[in-house]
Write a structure and sequence with these properties.
The chain is α+β, with helices and mostly antiparallel strands. It has two helices and 15 strands. β10 and β11 form a beta hairpin. It starts with a helix and ends with a strand.
């Protein structure tokens, strides 16, 4: 290189002013990297906690030496059994009671458990002298609280010395029933409905030696819905 060229380059370099470094851009880039690292750590911590809740395991808390344990969520409670008393008293010296019971899930030891795809069961449960006449009573399998399957079911439970409990699960419109007897005063009873269901029932106690003559069922306007003669 000639001396003249070397001198020209030196003079040009002396006239150039170096530009300021882009500090703001550098700081922003560094902050963005720190933010991404924090987001990744938070996401990893969230995944670890989610795994702990699902699996019920112990995991270290991010950033701490102490571990924390997370338990599995509690299982949902079994559907509640609904029961209402239909009546109770003393008949020919024996105490009695009758109840209408709805099991949303049929008991595992009942004959209706899992039958015909019907998960629930409705029972007329009778107790005489403090003892159940059967584990669950006279039952009907149902698919839910609005199943009309039990409607129109009638029966009787014999007590000692000839006394009888006449039971009925009438049609939905029936709100009361009156029984007449050949050798006794008429008896009128109200229909009981299980809350949250369409299941209804009533019971009429009949002493030994008394013969039922007729049974008449009425709706809310006291119009006759059904009539039976015995």
């Amino acid at each position: 290189m000639t001396d003249e060229l070397h001198d020209a380059l030196a003079r040009s370099a002396g006239r150039l002013t170096p530009s300021a470094p882009p500090l703001a851009e550098i700081l922003r880039a560094g902050g963005a990297r720190r933010t991404r690292r924090r987001a990744l750590r938070a996401a990893a911590a969230g995944c670890a906690l989610a795994a702990a809740v699902v699996a019920g395991v112990t995991v270290p808390w991010p950033g701490h030496s102490q571990s924390r344990t997370y338990a599995l969520p509690a299982a949902p409670p079994a559907p509640a059994v609904v029961s209402r008393s239909l009546g109770q008293g003393v008949l020919d010296g024996h105490s009695w009671s009758e109840s209408l019971v709805y099991y949303p899930q049929a008991p595992a030891d009942s004959p209706f458990s899992g039958s015909d795809g019907r998960r629930g069961v409705v029972c007329m449960a009778t107790t005489v002298d403090g003892k159940k006449t059967s584990p669950y009573g006279n039952c009907t399998g149902v698919s839910g609280p609005r199943d009309p399957a039990p409607s129109g079911m009638y029966g009787q439970q014999s007590l000692a010395a000839g006394a009888v409990l006449y039971t009925a699960q009438p049609e939905a419109e029936v709100v009361s029933a009156t029984a007449t007897f050949g050798n006794g005063a008429p008896v009128t009873v109200k229909v009981v409905t299980l809350p949250g269901t369409d299941f209804t029932a009533y019971v009429i106690p009949v002493a030994a030696g008394v013969k039922m003559h007729s049974l008449v069922e009425y709706d809310a306007q006291h119009q006759v819905i059904g009539h039976q003669t015995f």
